[in-house]
Amino acid sequence: MGASRTLGVVGAGQLGRMLHQAAVSHVIGPETTIRFLAEHPDEPAVQVAPSWEIGAAMSADDLTRFAKGCDVVTFEHEVVDLQAIRALERAGAVVRPSAAALAIVADKVAMRRAVQGAGLPVPPWCQVADADQLDDAIGRWPSVVLKLSRGGYDGRGVFMPDSADEAARIGRTLLQAGAVLLVEPRIAFEAEAAIIVARRPGGQCVVYDPVRTEQVDGQCREVRVPSGLAPAVAARCREVAIAAAAAVDVVGLLAVELFVLDGGNVVVNELAVRPHNTGHHTIDACVTSQFENHLRAVLDLPLGDPSLRCDAAVMVNVIGNAAGDDPVDHLEAALALDPAARIHLYGKRARPDRKLGHVTVCADEVDDAAARAWAVVAALHGDGRP
Amino acid sequence: MGASRTLGVVGAGQLGRMLHQAAVSHVIGPETTIRFLAEHPDEPAVQVAPSWEIGAAMSADDLTRFAKGCDVVTFEHEVVDLQAIRALERAGAVVRPSAAALAIVADKVAMRRAVQGAGLPVPPWCQVADADQLDDAIGRWPSVVLKLSRGGYDGRGVFMPDSADEAARIGRTLLQAGAVLLVEPRIAFEAEAAIIVARRPGGQCVVYDPVRTEQVDGQCREVRVPSGLAPAVAARCREVAIAAAAAVDVVGLLAVELFVLDGGNVVVNELAVRPHNTGHHTIDACVTSQFENHLRAVLDLPLGDPSLRCDAAVMVNVIGNAAGDDPVDHLEAALALDPAARIHLYGKRARPDRKLGHVTVCADEVDDAAARAWAVVAALHGDGRP
After folding, report:
1. Taking the model in full, what pTM does it have?
2. Which residues in chain A touch residue B50, judged by CB atoms under 8 angstroms apart?
3. ipTM for the predicted complex
4. A247, A117 Cβ separation under 8 angstroms
5. How far apart are CA A268 and CA A259, in angstroms?
6. Which of A114, A85, A44 is nearest to A275 (CA)?
């Protein structure tokens, strides 16, 4: 029997919940506990896991207290007090991914610099910290996207103004609030793709198949695999993702969101160092899920096979609608509609635009999988049978 | 939002643990809790689930108290105080499977009668309650098997004497202890098979593919699917299983263990009304696991597709060896050996003959899957690479 060990997970949302589900298979036992730092006692992971404590990921005190009880600390989101994480590392805590990796992804400017510095392709961009830089950036491209360098998530913090005037207005407002911006041209892309790498401390890594994603207002709606990308483009995505994982020196998961440009070039749009929405299909469609591989990576265990185990899979998010319908109320109809659909609900109160769950359908053909997954999501919204 | 609801599970062993893992997907939420009645605070399900209380399944008081907090009560084992369960039903509790179904499977004589009474095939057998009946039974067949009618499990309570004299000696000892026995001839069979049915209150059911099982001393060692049974035999297994589920009027799962006789006839050996060891492969090899379908059935939700999602799968149990080796100590080697193997460890202290976990390998071909699964189990026992 090994020594007793606690894996601490900062955050207790749906990603923590799915990490816990994966940890039941062979991680949790008399010697290994998984413990969550939760903001509230009704969070998704708290509903399903026995070990948690209340605390804020942005509080140095809470993080420090939490880490004291843990042998390894990992994260289900990146909105954490980085100073505290750095201090914990200096004091000898095992933090995976590291504070350095978290710092890169917590700041879109730092992220761009890191990716570019590793010789990897990024879209044109510039940092904007004052009004002169703003005007310069807006003048540089026909239309621009403004992104808060820090603090945005899930489409929040990204602005797509319709004109240069509107860009200037929004930009000034954000700068006055003290923000630093990343400004880039609106890119014409052929597709949005994403790819997930799991990486151990020694650098061993496995890579999932690239997926094609559909985003609405910066929020992931649908993930398709196979991606339909040309083999050379898919290979380039893999190559870029592995290089990015090494550049960030991530331990755990790295999710890389890419734009595939007309002509087949790819550029890195965003990075995340945690389980990612574009990998939720891996629970039902891959030999080893992203969640299990995150656990294996941060516990320095050999990684699992990331291969697809079906010809095609589509994941569609269940996102709270304007009416505030609760998908739980329509679960029975959704289960009846498609006995092979894999329905995941996170135990969150229904609110507009909130990610409440996801549905994955595995099938022989990707369009068939998509039609079926969207039909089940419609049923979960109470929209009746399609 | 629906009304708040608690599903109570009597028992907190590995079956409860895997039920909990399945319940994370879409059962547990702000309105639905799953709660375990555990004998000890270190049991497999308690390690992974937030809601449980200590109590004995054989204690009427504990069961009654537990049931008071539950809207639906189900079971992960059948060693329960049936009188108390009957009283709970009379008082209006929703118990699934019912006391009547539990009573049938808790007593091998009652089980045989029920199966036979439904017109389904069983081996030759007789009930033995005194010495005269014992002598009569022993004289009837060249060699016999003695089974305790009540209280046996996992090979315990089954005796295979080598001679008539030994049979008489063992039988008398058991009778003197107050036991009732089921005595049957040792049957020459071509194969042992098992099949699992999930059944809702209204009678809707789904049936898993029959599997071929290998038992050692009455304990399940290996499960193979496809079973290799002739199509007509497999069809007969399905037919018998569905009829048995209706005869028992089970709500939840019915596992049917069968002997396939030379010539292809099948006879029902045993029934269980809960998730079953012969269905553990369904977690990784089927669209919907037996655990998820048990939950759906007892919550009266539409059942999930039980289809295999790979060409072949083999499950091998990890059973405590004489040396008391803990498979957790060898997890890293086992994970490294086969990145596609699915390793499940239950968090139980290692003891000889104890079921500590299982390994499932999905592959194109069943012998390949078996070789790989056994190799991973060997690695978990610290036996080195094969």
Report:
1. 0.96
2. 46-50
3. 0.96
4. yes
5. 7
6. A44
